[in-house]
Amino acid sequence: MEFLKITEAQIISVAVAVVAVGVAAFYLYSSKKSKVCLDSEKWKNFKLVNRTQLSHNVAKFRFELPTPTSVLGLPIGQHISCKGTDSQGEEVTKPYTPTTLDSDVGYFELVIKMYPQGRMSHHFREMRVGDYMAVKGPKGRFRYQPGQVRAFGMLAGGSGITPMFQVARAVLENPNDKTEVYLIYANVTYEDILLKEELDSLAADYPTWFKVYYVLNQPPEPWNGGVGFVSKEMIQEHCPTPASDIKFLRVLPLPLPFCSHSFCQCCCDYCENVKAKCYNQPSETTSWWKKVKVDWLIQVVERSKIQQTRSGKTNEIRRYVFTDEEGTKVGAAIFDNDIRYFDDLLIPCNRYWISNAFVNRVDENYKISAYSYSWFINNSTLVEPHDEPIPPSLPFNIDTATMLDIQKYADFDTSITFEVLVIQVLPQKTQEKNNTTSRDIVAINQEKCSMIITLWNDFHLDEGQTIAQMVNITPTLLCFKLRASTFNVLSLTTRPSSALFYTAWVKVKTTLAPSQSAFWFATCNNCQKSINDDVGRNIKCISCNQNVKLEARTRILLELTDSTGTITASVLATEAEKLIGVNAEALRTAEDQDVDLSATIQNALKQHTIVTFLRKYDSTFQGRASEKYSIVKSYLIQDLFMNETLQRKALPFEEITSEGHTEMTVPKPTAKRSIDSASPMEDINPSPQKKLEKLD
What we know:
This protein is an alpha+beta fold and 696 residues long. It folds into five domains: 44-139, Translation factors (Elongation Factor Tu (Ef-tu), domain 3), CATH 2.40.30; 151-287, Rossmann fold (3-Layer(aba) Sandwich); 296-385, CATH 2.40.50.140; 403-503, CATH 2.40.50.140; 508-641, CATH 2.40.50.140. It has 14 helices and 36 strands. The strands form six sheets. Strands 13, 14, 15, 16, 17, 18, 19, 20 and 21 form a nine-stranded mixed beta sheet that branches. The radius of gyration is 30 Å and the shape is globular.
């Protein structure tokens, strides 16, 4: 036989070749594994190398990976978080799904629809080739596995097409995956259709495995796709029949502007009969409770006390108000034993990722925003803290009531938001007849009107006790959902759905904290972000995407001491400079000349006693969590006793005594700052949104 004629030398050469191929394959596999770029814990910067404008508000962004053979490392069905800055220079993060796979080596692409008021849209709108994007991931619960189902039914709207396109590509480009994909893609106009060329190409290349049906609310002429809203009949015709091996995927933007309620309800109606698996990633669903599987980033606005329900089905309820980055508010509730499950989560002002909540259409009389649904959370709901040291300010203003509003709504079931300075806390009262406790707070509002606020039961036991302990430093109290009453003349009272935020100004002695190597740092002169580079250099800031000049900014660590102890806090910029009498440029010059100003700064600080508003926040460094403080606003004690004219210019709150002298109460923050102080905030400058009227 012919193969017996092969020589020994030929056999050896073939063996060497096989070994070489094996080594090369092993090296390629190993190197490919080592070049995964994503990190779920750390932000990584990727350079924008190409931007293709697809329409007036849609663009494709290509980002370069570190090497031509690098892969992003994103599992199919998951997404990444992108970080940028909005039009106000504030940091913003948002999830996006690349349209590329790990088979696309050396780069990844995002198709972005940029909305006029979108915060992250602003960042993408301003991005130019050469700029960098901070990315972290992967994120998400759904993870695609080849062959896990017989078919996917996909319902997408607007920019929700990108995760669908990612999954569809992975299925169709895998020759061993026989999963069928049926996609219904809804938009308002023809111009709104994203990735149409790519979708049509998939349909042409894989006609047996991929079907796409377009639906437009305002179609052009002629048009052979669906018209109007997606209906149950459309899904029956263009999606697989529900079965145990069929999975439905939905991704709809929030809020969905072009789609009627039937778009979601018809899918649930269609799937419910046979218990088909339905993975939802929408903003709207049905008129009864339906599960939403989505990583939605929310910020907690309100968290009520635990209430007793009137229904016989459940005993207890805790209500919440959430908001997203665009300021859309949604009500939420947790019942019975699940309330304790989330005791340490969903803290006001903090942000969380939520998946597996349930939603229900809200009666028009109880809507709290344009969003038409409320949420129900139980122990199957995944709630994860958003990874950030300092949450941003709430994306909307807090409108507080006036005395006229209280008079108008007295003894009506109308919720009132009110801001006051607490000047006295009265003793506890107990009503043995119905076993309730209460405590009255005497306070002054922004109009210089005094009033009584009654805290009942849990509010008295929790917030009331804390406020009583800090009454000597005149805390600011911001109250949500109070009820106006005429029981104590004209007063306000808590109810179970109320929420209270309180702040504290503290009087402290200041000294310089030890072991400080520098008293300044280099920052962008536009967004004030720290940048490790030379002062005076002109650069393109990666945080605000502006051509800026680096400048010096003062930063000092202080030890603040009062009768209760000592804490360390940082103070920045002008707040620091008024304490030490030296500006940032002088500090930088002294350091360049090897002049140690520590003793000079220490002597200046020892002369001061200040009244300061502190911000507390959690920080993590090298895996260790710690509590930190920073000074938001401070007043030198001597400034509190200037002549009357200077007092009126410098301080926001004052009283006139019966003798005609001006006595200063502790300065108060604005309503927005009251919210900010309830948890760490990003902007440490006092808000100018509200100013108290001065006395004539």
